[in-house]
Amino acid sequence: MSASRTERLLNLLIALLNTTYGLRRSELRAKVYHDTTSTDVAFGRMFERDKGELRRFGFDVETVTDKGWGSDDPATTRYRIGKDSNRLPDVSLTPAECTVLILAAQLWEHAALGSAAVNAVRKLQASGGLADAELPAGVQPRIRPAGQAFEDLVAAMHAQHPVSFRYLAGSTGREEERLVEPWGLGSRFGQWYLVAHDRARGDKRFFRLSRLTSAVTVLAKERFTPPADFNVRAELAGLAELPVRTAVVDVQSGRLRGLRKRALAGPAADAGAGPPATGRDRLSVPFRDVETLAEELASYGPRAVAVSPPELVTSVRRRLAAAADFAAAPVPPIAFPAVSPGGAPRPGRKRTSEDQLSRMLQLVPFLVHNQGLHISEVAQKFGITRKELEADLRILICSGLPEGYPDDLLDIQWDDDHVTITEHLDLNRPVRFTVEEACALLTGLETLNGLPELAEGSALESVTLKLMAAAGEEGLKAAALSGPEVGPENSATLETARGAIRAGAQLRMRYFSPLRDAVSERNIDPLRLYSLDNTWYLEAYCHSAQGLRNFRLDRIEALETTGQPVSETAAPGSSFPVKLFTPNDDDTVVVVELTRRGVGLADEYYAERTAELPGGGLLAEIRFGSTDWLPMFVAQHGGTARILQPDELAKASREWLAAALAQYED
């Protein structure tokens, strides 16, 4: 969509909103499109595309015909948009409800539906229904990004398009091509599942996303109708958890303390193999899912080798071989888009003109309810640069009623850097929630039920009911999505940390570092807690490292107060949600290549610059405070990520993979 088309759609929208009886196609062609050269057929196709685009943004274009002779004549058909039917109903929230809602929206930060959650909150802000709220200490959960496959499946599910992908069948261990109709996505037992109708088998099937071995292909030209009243949570409730099995793993002596802690006591079964190599210990490790354990063992590289069961050995070898093949592939040209002077590179997917039009439809009601804000503050609220905001404003002030006078245009001023709007042309109320926005908020609120301190209050229930009423039909579709558990596994450690944060008390901690494979004693000043699914992190000032660090609660072996208050220098990071590391001047800047399946890692690791590659891949420039674990990172992701620069890190990852694969040579 070009900027000219963006402006044309705005003018068409304003014209259809501001007519009582409707406008004929010939009137719109002359007054809005100023079209005098194309044929009737060509113009008709353009008009139908534009109507479809407006419907996609939440505006239903009504068709008005006169009864009697000629009522079916396209030349006499009129078009209009109702002023109220497409608008978000007024939603009034208490401060407690605002707090819960913001927590629900922030669950999706960097995960699929993250931008939809931001847009939904912005619409509530634009309508004046959302007040500033202070987030409680220790209750800042987030949903872990589930990868590009999740995003593709969510989009196909909402658009009701079938999809195809290659899948590693759990029953046979073979990769198969699947063509399915995606009905719902949900998290169960710590795994994301797709519930879909398998066309080849003619029946409902459950697919674990971790078993997808290819990118998802969306069949955009086909449509399907999901079952009425489908609820993915109810579907997954009947899914039995996988039984506990035992894997035999040989581990380097004195290494992988974390894996050893989970191993069963006593000597490991022989598994039909010979004795472990010199310098290796044989462990019996309980597990439920082969692919989950294979991902972990692949990340250990030459430090561990799977012995049995055979499907585990095959899965680890497959991941390592895919990573090694990708690491050895030809390197693409490394070039990132130039940054304008004073500008900052922005990670994430490329912004489109569709994003711009959606943003402008939120911008007008936001300005109506927030008159006189500084232009930089407005740009910050919308997550764009001042230059991008001014481009939006210039398009807006050129838009208005067809053949209208100056007072029939949108009137926006920012000469003194404070933005005011005096004419809004009925764009002063936000458009109703899209299905993605409704899903983001309602699924987030449902997920917060896993936190007892929120579930016990009335605010969570009341804000859910208000949003269901505001979302209408789109809110009912949220039943096709169900989030993961966010309650912590170790509630005692969480409560100790939360109590110390509230009291401003220093803590003494015994902590296991998997990178160093060692346990250390530290004094820390706790600052705040946050999570990815049910894995919780403590952000703290570490006196040993003399800086901010983030610690996983499940790696804390002991935690107690020292009786001392926190130091005056301790302060949390400047932004929320916090990053999993604190940037420093001595960080290493690493260029990573990601396949289409792995592009979500750019957001997950806060890429500073990105560049698109043919085929849907991505170059990403990422800062890492420690690079020792990067070979583990490459091995873990099994052929979806590789290191390109610096050269010595790329070489180290290739050598790590080669050494790991050599263990599986017969």
What are the segments in which pLDDT stays under 50 over at least 5 consecutive residues?
340-350, 574-581
Compute the number of helices: 21
Main sheet? Answer: 6 strands, mixed
Q: Measure the end-to-end span.
A: 56 Å
3D shape: globular
Strand content: 15-25%
Radius of gyration: 28 Å
Helix content: 25-40%
Quaternary state reads single chain
Write the layout of secondary structure elements.
Blueprint: H1 3-17, E1 23-24, H2 25-31, H3 40-56, E2 62-64, E3 78-80, H4 95-106, H5 114-126, H6 148-159, E4 163-168, E5 175-188, E6 191-198, E7 203-208, E8 217-218, H7 232-237, E9 245-252, H8 257-262, E10 280-287, H9 290-299, E11 304-308, H10 310-328, H11 353-369, E12 373-374, H12 375-381, H13 386-397, E13 411-413, E14 418-423, H14 435-447, H15 452-455, H16 459-471, H17 473-476, E15 481-482, H18 491-503, E16 505-513, E17 518-532, E18 535-542, E19 547-552, E20 556-565, E21 588-594, H19 600-604, E22 609-612, E23 618-624, H20 630-636, E24 641-645, H21 647-662
Parallel strand pairs: 5-15
Antiparallel strand pairs: 1-3, 2-3, 4-5, 4-8, 5-6, 6-7, 9-10, 9-11, 12-14, 13-14, 16-17, 16-20, 17-18, 18-19, 21-23, 21-24, 22-23
Helix pairs in contact: 4-5, 4-14, 4-16, 5-11, 5-14, 9-10, 9-20, 10-21, 14-16, 20-21
Give a verbal description of the structure:
With 666 residues, this protein is of the alpha+beta class. The protein is 34% helix and 22% strand. It has 21 helices and 24 strands. Strand 5 and strand 6 form a beta hairpin. Helix 4 (95-106) runs antiparallel to helix 5 and helix 9 (290-299) packs antiparallel against helix 20 (630-636). The longest helix is centred in the middle third of the chain and has 19 residues, at 310-328.
